[in-house]
Amino acid sequence: MTTTQPRLVGARVARVEDPRFLKGEARYIANIVLAGMRHARFVRSPLAHARILSIDTSAVPEGVAVFTGDEWAEFGIECTSRYEGFQPAAMPILAVGKVRYVGEPVVMVIADDPYLAEDAAEAVMVDYDPLPALTTIDEALAGDAPLIHEHWETNLYVPRTYSSPDYDEQTKDMLSVSGRLSHSRHSGVPMEGRAVLAEFTAGRFKVHTATQIPHLVRTAVATAMGLAEREVQIVSPDVGGGFGVKAQAYPEEVACALAAKALRVPVKWIEDRREHFMASHHSREHTHQASLHFTEEGKIKGLAAELYVDMGAYSVFPWTATMDTGMAMGILPGPYRFTGYKVDGFPTCTNKTPYGAYRGVSRPAACFTIERLVDWMARDRGLDRLEARRMNLVRQEDYPWTNPGGLVYDGGSLDESIDVMKEWIGYDGLVESLRNDRKQGKLRGLGMAIFTEQSAHTTEEFKKRGVPIVFGYETATLRLDPTGHLTIAASIHSHGQGLETTLAQFAGETLGMPMDRVKVVFGDTDQVSYGAGTFASRSAVLAGGAARLAATELREKLTRIAAYLLEAAEADLVFSEDGIEVVGSPGSGISMAELCRITYQRPDLLPEGELPTLESTKTYDAAPGTGTYTNALHMGVVEIDEGTGGIDLQNYWVVEDCGVMINPLVVEGQIHGGVAQGIGTALLEEMIYDENGQLLTTTYMDYLLPTAEDVPFIGTRHLETPSPFTEGGIKGMGEGGAIAPAAVIAGAVEEALSDLGQVYVSRVPLTPEQVLNHIAEARSLQ
Amino acid sequence: MKTAADGTISVSVTVNGTNRSADVSPRTLLSDFLRDYLGLMGTNVGCEHGYCGACNVIVDGQTARSCLILTPSVEGSEITTVEGLASNGDLSPLQQAFQQAHGLQCGFCTPGFLMTATGLLESTRGALSDGEIRSAISGNICRCTGYVHIVDAIRSASEARSE
Questions:
Q1: By C-alpha distance, which of A452, A455, A453, A432 is closest to A444?
Q2: What pTM value is reported for the model?
Q3: CB contact, 8 Å: A13 with chain B?
Q4: Residue A270: phi, psi to the nearest 5?
Q5: Which SS3 state, helix, strand or coil, does residue A119 take?
Q6: Which of A103, A110, A315, A586 could potentially form a cystine with A321 if both were Cys, beta carbons 3.0 to 4.6 Å apart?
Q7: Each residue's pLDDT tens digit, B106-132
Q8: C-alpha distances out from residue A764 to A81, A125, A431, Å
Q9: Nearest by CB to A21, which of B25, B100, B104?
Q10: Angle, vertex CA B32, rays to CA B31 and CA B34, nearest 5
């Protein structure tokens, strides 16, 4: 059976969710007003590490409710690991006895309006006895370091180690380049901060929270409070950006629920920007001590690395403190065809804000390390950087390729992406013209990075990472109503990714449904099946796959019923935009509305044994479970101002292959947004702590985000190599844009300075100060 | 403008063409006045320190940060918010351009960008260059789009008006 309507998959469909955002009618949590609602404010720790001696609330105005940690000491959020030796520590709802990072919630006050709540919070006096603050990995791992969690043996969550059996053999007598490569601590910083509005009614909690993972938050809140999960409903309506920051459970969610029950009123908390910098989970801070081993010809034979990640004061739910080291250990070998691999991971506990997910999780740092090392190898061997990559890439005939980190690459177009890029940007001419510019004193250079983006990783990957909850699958329920309209209820979330449109395209096409008859719902644990949510570039692949399987089942049932009603053979039926027709007999068919009406309301007309319902629920977990692999090649050109150290990013190009594209417009939007965030990583963003663990960057004046004048036009070209493993051949691609820019820009800066002297750029962000240091260093080498 | 015994101040403004009055505490920010007193929730608050531009509105013809303005200071002013752009529920040409170009993702910064772009389009003529657009929106932060499609949307709206 076929479909006559134009294909939806692959079409640049404008998003159906846009009008409510454009008209100012979005339903962000701040916009929800409930009768009797009161407003919460948290008193947060001003110190990185201290004992709480006393809390004096006597100056708090009458009528303001106050809660402290001792009252809720039993309700922590714990995220332990299945790795042997993992040192657990529950994150308290409000600090109990001790604070472990600046911004940790200590006291909660609740007043009639947000202004009064802020006044009340200022009236709370907390007396602290400061303890030594551990603000770096070196400090935390020093032999005489005090313990952040007293019951631990060291300040290490759990060390991890892996070595391929052939590492020594592969790397014996090889040449090598080495470096200590690092990313600053920074984070997703969505435009909407966190927000919670909790109610307790009819014996149940209803917690509105700006989250990417509604069911996992339900699990966390119910577990923290010792409740059955059905006693908690999580609603995550419109969410103003997530990027991973909202993919963790937070103590404020539990605190608002507890307070709503205690006070019998809805309790609302809207995070302000300063709180966001201090208390929403940070990310990205990696230091890799790494060596690449290769032959005289530049053939890579092995990689060795020690990965240090500053995970902050607590292990976050649901990822655990081993998320970043675990992911980096898998993906560090990148798109290259070698087998010798040795890696150690050190997720370290410090007196900093806990560390969670941010778009790309580990992959920006991993890409930076391998790509910088390959650039340095090319320099060492006198090779063109692009050709040095090409000769080491996984080849078409190698797929499916199991990398030395154990990840199975499903396929791609690495080599082809190089050809496309070279032709598109006129690579050879560009290299030559930049060389001439440098000869005339201009500091211009080109950088590049090629990578595979692990996406939609499922059961096998999370099993390997030792997380307590293994999130593989997602579930979708498709329901046709008696008027022939389709609802897709999916266990993911959408907070900018456009899934209200793309899931409708992907599943709707199977039923021949025009977009205006499909509605996608998500974000309410009472309305959708249990699932993990939206992160790790997984939602289109997994929820889309589930929706497509359910659509296929509905299609088969509709076909059977239509064949019976039309007295036609199933093989002679086609789906059209209006319903189902008999091939070659226009006007002979039955509309979708009529077919659905008969199914529900005239069961007497149905074939024997056919149940009068049009509903299907499917759960999908993409094989083989270590992800689908989008590949991309990024290049960019910078010009450096020698006087100020300022970097002008002049061009940025992306050739990407994310398999079959559902909606190229949305794909491009995701690439642009990711690249802009990667530019922030490369040039601007850094959470800066002083030696006492005081966070110095708590406004947008100190923590800089890329503006429209920092981000250039970003060119995109697409290749489409279908995944052999997934429904419809699609791959995840939401994070890729953010993975490569740091490596690209570092390489471009290195080349721009190459006529002054050959420096090694091994840390981002490349602030003007850093660039001036590199210029001085380059000159000193002359 | 009158101050009552309880310290509140009576404020009267014209918002999206309609006269609105309320008694507010003197420290009430315009962003909170629009949202909490008038129920106009389209103006989002992103940073409360005048940097991100999510709360931009138009006050007496000038694009302004509503989180930096104390409400009594706009007594008698004419204010346009994002709710004032569509007419009879139909998207304005600028709003349509944002949808067609995929100029928004999570939508939180979008009202601020729309108000900045509205101010830009009202104060210029003809098709705008990318440089002019990028300069004009450099006081608005978007964390989702990388700005490329926002620039496309505003350029397309500027071209459409000059045809």
A1: A432
A2: 0.97
A3: no
A4: -115, 115
A5: helix
A6: A315
A7: 999 999 999 999 999 999 999 999 999
A8: 31, 39, 24
A9: B104
A10: 70
